[in-house]
Amino acid sequence: MRRLTNLLVVFVAAAARVAANDQQVFRQHATPDSKLAQRTYDQASSTGNLIFWSVNSLLQQWPNTRYINGHTITAAAVLPGTILYHGRGNDDRPVALDWLATDPEHSVVFCRSKCYLYTYVTTRALRLAYFDGSSAAKIRPSGVMDTQDILIWGKVRPDMTRNEAGRIRELCKWGEQFELDGFVRMEMDFEVMICDFGAGMELVSESQIVPHASEERHRPDSMDLFYPSPPPPPPPRPQPLPELPPGWRGSARSRISISFEVLNSGTWHNRSPGEKRVKIDYSRVVSFFDPALSSLAKARTGKSREEFRLDEISETDSKYIREQLHDIFTRTGQGSGIDWGSITQVIVDRYGKRLELLQHILQNPGSKRNITEQVAEVRSQALIMLTPYMLVSAIPPNPTGPVDPSWIDPVVKHCASTHTAWAPSTLLTPQEKLIKVAVEAVLFRICGVLGDIWKDAFDSGETGLNALQRLLGKWQSDIEQLMDWLDWSMWLKCEPICGPEEICYIPTWPWGYRFDRNEGEKVDMTPRCIEAVAPYSFLQPFEP
Predict the structure, then answer these.
(1) Which of 20, 220, 433, 470 has the fewest CB neighbours in a 10 Å radius?
(2) d(Cα 93, Cα 86) in Å, to the nearest integer?
């Protein structure tokens, strides 16, 4: 195991050295021990798993709801011919500094007793910046808007968490120098903050649609938190009935139904490919998990993933990030053209369910298998995953003599490097090189653990029962540690699966969060099945 770990250290450090050299323009401030090339390869200090997770999760609702504090800013675009929506309770058409939704369900929630839905189409590609995490949620205290604060002010501004009018004004002011059209964020669903509605868009329709009913017990300020720009003046209490058309029969949709469908529309983008109407430029992904950011590496020490924030970023590291942002929005050219999102998804698709199955086999021998059969099945599963990399030249030639444990090294290296060894370093941007190192770090960890299991199980047919039991315990520990380190969101799910009138849910702002949380307050992210039809009993509106 130590030899294999040393191999991983050498490979990842070598790959990182290349990336560090090419990023020197951004890393002049970095201390030697903050560079990935000089970090030891272990789960306490390597950020490869975090960068990989972030890249793989961009524009996906589920992972960015699970971990609300974003750590990525990237260039993005909405292509020509894309339909976007704006809903409100009056007929004042938005002109500038306002919000569009990618789904109409997200727009109509902003209606009151009247409902006006404006539909727009993009006439050219919109130049955008995207903030990952639940970057539009108004959760205080939290780090949901830390990346935006760093971009605008160079530091975190908790006092601005709910000043959405001021935030969009400052973001658009910052974006003018790069000719940005707006910014993409996520709350219950995805939104686009638009700086100028006359640039790159045309109005398709302006419709007064049937409004929804108001709830008598509606909390006075609850919907105000939904409004990204100042809402229409609140109506007197009790709220007026919706202005239904004269020929309307029966009841209107309830507010709770409208609210649920915002949540439901967000689930359409839960997993890969996520929100497809927004396109990520993977050559311009700026990560706050960059190991050059030594102040943040120190701030993460001893904290859980949910607690990672940017409020302790140093002035030097903040400047470094802002220099990268200036570079990605002014740089010409398209980088390598490699779709790093697809590469990370291929890896998740190939190993995700198989690692979960292997974990199940190790945890639940049950009555189906005795120890020998369980070891044989684990061996079989490891071989399944390593088959494309099982080089004939690596197999020990002597079937009976002692075996050099290093025989597995070429198999592990082949397994870990297949997706990146060919990547032309001269064509990669500094941001791509960081992603490449992260992919290699993740693959070396996966392939290394599988290689270790295969090496142990290679001739396990001649091993005694006590030794086999010890191997099973070791393998179970190794797989659990690997999966904890990877922390892929596909493993967070409702079990058993939900029924046809349910959806799988984790707390999604504003549900499941208090208006003003206590510092360090935990939110239970255990997935649960909730009603997808009336009475929506889980949606008790916004109790503090």
Answers:
(1) 220
(2) 9
